[in-house]
């Protein structure tokens, strides 16, 4: 019997999408992970992988007639994590509601302002206000927790650690999903949000576009402590990470060894290597996965279409 809590990888490539004979088994779409709990689901990031997810939602809508209510949480606004938004089919369906959550970064006054400014001419021919769905654009940060209460359409958003959360937060047992986030500062130039999605006593942590620290990322290890699944950036091998003449140290991405170290110290059950280098072939990622297994035995390299029951 399948689990009532699962994740599906729709895109796991970093920087830009790729295609061709060398990218068949792991895929070439950029970041998008969908977390499902029963009939409730959320997407993490909207790279080109979200196009496939949008097509799934439209097929369901055509089959059942149930209106689409989509939730997408963004780690940051680099192009490879947002480029799928204007190609997300529910954006053009009048009866759909698309709820977008993301960090306020850079010179923009809000997450919504940044998104609406980018997806408009001359960068994209259709401005946000001409996309037919009902759209909400919401700021989210480390201080927020989002509770998707069973039987309730709209989530409850509270400030983590504030007395209001202690007094008003729904019991986790009464929620389909709870989304918590942590701000990471080691992804240029404005940082990134890392997400923990909880379903009862089970959890998955999504930590892409993050780079390690000397003696480990202790904040992330604490955030991910005991998670069932840790999805962690592992763009490089340690050899590539320090290779001359252009080592990618400081680019805000991790090695498989860094990812395995976080997984071990956080005592997670499963490590998923994520945000594959666009220059890496299927064979290269096979090697990466083998390195990961040698360092942390329950490791798998993400691939488009991979489903993990939790």
Explain what you see.
This protein has 310 residues and is an alpha/beta fold. The protein has a single domain (5-309), classed as Metallo-beta-lactamase, Chain A (4-Layer Sandwich), CATH 3.60.15. Helix content is 22%, strand content 27%. The protein is built from 8 helices and 15 strands. It has helices spanning 50-64, 79-82, 111-118, 163-168, 218-223, 238-241, 256-266, 282-295; strands at 5-11, 32-37, 40-44, 69-73, 97-102, 134-139, 144-149, 156-159, 175-184, 192-199, 202-207, 229-233, 270-274, 299-301, 307-309. The strands form 2 sheets. The protein has an 8-stranded mixed sheet. The chain has a 7-stranded mixed sheet with strand order 6-5-4-3-2-1-15. A hairpin with a 7-residue loop joins strand 9 (175-184) and strand 10 (192-199). Helix 7 (256-266) packs parallel to helix 8 (282-295). It is globular, with a radius of gyration of 19 Å. The mean pLDDT is 94.
Number of domains: 1
Q: Structural class per helix/strand content?
A: alpha/beta
CATH architecture: 4-Layer Sandwich
* Radius of gyration using CA atoms only: 19 Å
* Average pLDDT level: 94
Helix residue percentage = 10-25%
Point out poorly predicted stretches.
Answer: none
Cα shape: globular
At the fourth level of CATH, the homologous superfamily is Ribonuclease Z/Hydroxyacylglutathione hydrolase-like
> Can you count the helices?
8
SSE pattern: EEEHEHEHEEEHEEEHEHHEHEE
Proportion of strand residues: 25-35%
The CATH C-level class name: Alpha Beta
């Amino acid at each position: 019997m399948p689990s009532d809590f699962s994740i599906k990888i729709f895109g796991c490539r970093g920087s830009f999408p790729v295609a061709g004979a060398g990218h068949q088994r792991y895929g070439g779409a950029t970041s998008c992970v969908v977390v499902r709990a029963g009939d409730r689901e959320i997407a993490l990031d909207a790279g080109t992988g979200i196009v496939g997810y949008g097509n799934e939602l439209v097929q369901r809508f055509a089959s059942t007639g149930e209106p689409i209510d989509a939730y997408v949480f963004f780690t940051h606004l680099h192009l490879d994590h947002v480029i799928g938004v204007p190609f997300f089919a529910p954006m053009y369906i009048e009866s759909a509601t698309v709820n977008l959550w993301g960090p306020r970064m850079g010179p923009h006054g809000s997450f919504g302002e940044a998104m609406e400014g980018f997806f408009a001419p001359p960068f994209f021919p259709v401005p946000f206000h001409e996309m037919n769905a009902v759209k909400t654009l919401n700021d989210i940060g480390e201080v927020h927790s989002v509770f998707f209460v069973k039987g309730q359409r709209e989530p409850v958003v509270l400030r983590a650690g504030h007395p209001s959360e202690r007094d008003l937060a729904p019991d986790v047992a009464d929620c389909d999903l709870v989304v918590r986030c942590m701000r990471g500062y080691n992804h240029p130039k404005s940082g990134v949000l890392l997400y923990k999605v909880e379903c009862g006593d089970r959890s998955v942590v999504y930590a892409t576009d993050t780079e390690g620290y000397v003696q480990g990322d202790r904040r992330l290890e604490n955030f991910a402590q005991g998670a069932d699944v840790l999805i962690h950036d592992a763009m490089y091998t340690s050899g590539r990470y320090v290779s001359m003449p252009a080592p990618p140290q400081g680019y805000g991405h991790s090695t498989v060894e860094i990812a395995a170290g976080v997984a071990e110290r956080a005592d997670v059950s499963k490590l998923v290597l994520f945000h594959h280098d666009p220059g890496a072939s299927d064979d290269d990622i096979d090697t990466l996965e083998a390195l990961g297994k040698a360092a942390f035995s329950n490791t798998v390299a993400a691939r488009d279409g991979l489903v993990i029951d939790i």
